Amino acid sequence: MEKLVSSWYKNKPLPESYIFPPETRPGNLTVPTCKTIPVIDLGKAEGRNRTRIVQQICKASEEYGFFQVVNHGVPEDLMKESMDVLKEFFEMPAEDKAVLYSEDPRNRCRLSTSSVNYAREKVHHWRDNLRHPCLPGLEDCIQLWPQKPIRYREVVARFSIEAKKLGSRILEFVAEGLGLEPGYFGGELSEFMQLSVNHYPPCPDPSLTLGIAQHCDPNLVTILHQGDVNGLQVFNNGEWIRVEPLQNAFVVNIGNQLQIISNDKLKSVEHRVVTNSNLARTSAAFFIAPSGDSIIEPAKSLIGQASLYRAFEFKDFLLHYFPNLENNDVVMERFRSQA
Ligand code: OGA
Ligand code: NI
């Protein structure tokens, strides 16, 4: 519990164990300000415009692996209410958070600072993280969720339902763009959804550490609300580019499974989070994922000359993913056809 960054960071210099090696630290933080990921207006997505939106989504997913959506249908007041509750969660006194603190990744609802194993990681991340399942079985999942703040369960349940709806809608656009039948990604390929809430306290030296190190998301697709503070960066054409926080937007990114099913047409792209010296940042990521025993393989109609990946069970992907979290090439290589 005392490991939570939020419980000790005030008025302290950056501890040695949070300093990244020179080749992965953000350094002087100069990233181009003119380049960012595409913003797609889903408010115009029906009728004759639908095809254009589908094309924009596919192009962004091929070139960046990331895009933002606005006018997406999730009520703005619900987004605000949800982010307020999530921030309140991290602002609670230590004893209220202690009940959920755990370093055991098998714990389904847990508050921690690391993605996998605090004791074994070489460098620690400058963030606290709360994660829990939302689907399948929202009603059962809710029983695992924080009981404080009092309105957490009710508000986050409504937010989860909306995030899933938006995710399903985007997956329908993606299926259409790839020429797959409607509902291709429905069912077991998107049966699971986990909420991961990151809280990055203000950091004494953002040039030396990271909120989350470079990684790809292992799931199908991620729907993220990053609040109003800068931090998320995406690797594109050999450089890190910033994802501008847009009020009421969601950031969408292609996960490893969607890259594989599309036979590398769409890209799962590396991203990271830098910290901020005077502002705390809170983000909410909904990871939409297959069930553990779903068979993942490139869609038959997209194989063309060759299937670039062999068939595997999603749970085997995860087993290989976590120990190699920061090396996406190593993870993907294992599932490529000739490996
Ligand atoms: C993640 C992630 C980005 C953010 O949780 O996988 O990339 O802005 N989060 O917090
Ligand atoms: Ni991520």
What does the model show?
The strands form three sheets. Strands 1-2-10-7-12-5-4-3 form an eight-stranded mixed beta sheet. It has a four-stranded antiparallel beta sheet with strand order 6-11-8-9, with no helix packed on it. Helix 2 (50-63) links the parallel strand 1 (39-41) and strand 2. Helices cover 27% and strands 20% of the residues. The longest helix is centred in the middle third of the chain and has 27 residues, at 152-178. Helix 2 packs across helix 6 (152-178) and helix 3 (76-91) packs across helix 6 (152-178). It contains nine helices and 14 strands. The chain is globular, with a radius of gyration of 19 Å. It has helices spanning 5-8, 50-63, 76-91, 94-98, 138-142, 152-178, 256-261, 314-321, 328-333, and strands at 39-41, 66-70, 110-112, 128-135, 192-200, 212-215, 221-225, 232-236, 239-242, 250-254, 271-273, 281-289, 295-296, 312-313. Residues 196, 198, 212, 217, 224, 226, 231-232, 271, 273, 283, 285 line the site of N-oxalylglycine (OGA).
Keywords:
single chain, 339 residues, Jelly Rolls, 8-stranded mixed beta sheet, 4-stranded antiparallel beta sheet, 27% helix, 20% strand, globular, binds N-oxalylglycine, binds nickel (II) ion, Oxoglu/Fe-dep_dioxygenase_dom, DIOX_N, IPNS-like_FE2OG_OXY, oxidoreductase, iron
- pLDDT under 50 segments (min length 5)? none
Q: What distance lies between the first and last C-alpha atoms, to the nearest angstrom?
A: 41 Å
CATH topology: Jelly Rolls
Please tell me the overall pLDDT: 94
Q: What CATH first level would be assigned?
A: Mainly Beta
Number of separate domains: 1
The strand order across the widest sheet is: 1-2-10-7-12-5-4-3
Helix share, percent? 25-40%
User: Can you say what the CATH homologous superfamily is?
Assistant: B-lactam Antibiotic, Isopenicillin N Synthase, Chain
Helical element count? 9
Strand content: 15-25%
User: What would the principal axes of the Cα set say about the shape?
Assistant: globular
Task: List the bound ligands.
Answer: N-oxalylglycine, nickel (II) ion
Q: What CATH architecture label applies?
A: Sandwich
**Secondary structural class:** alpha+beta
Summarize the helix and strand pattern as letters. Answer: HEHEHHEEHHEEEEEEHEEEEHH
Rounded radius of gyration (Å): 19 Å
Most strands sheet:
8 strands, mixed
Number of strands: 14
Keywords: Iron, Metal-binding, Oxidoreductase
InterPro entries: DIOX_N, IPNS-like_FE2OG_OXY, IPNS-like_sf, Oxoglu/Fe-dep_dioxygenase_dom, Plant_2OG-oxidoreductases
Pfam families: 2OG-FeII_Oxy, DIOX_N
Family: Belongs to the iron/ascorbate-dependent oxidoreductase family.
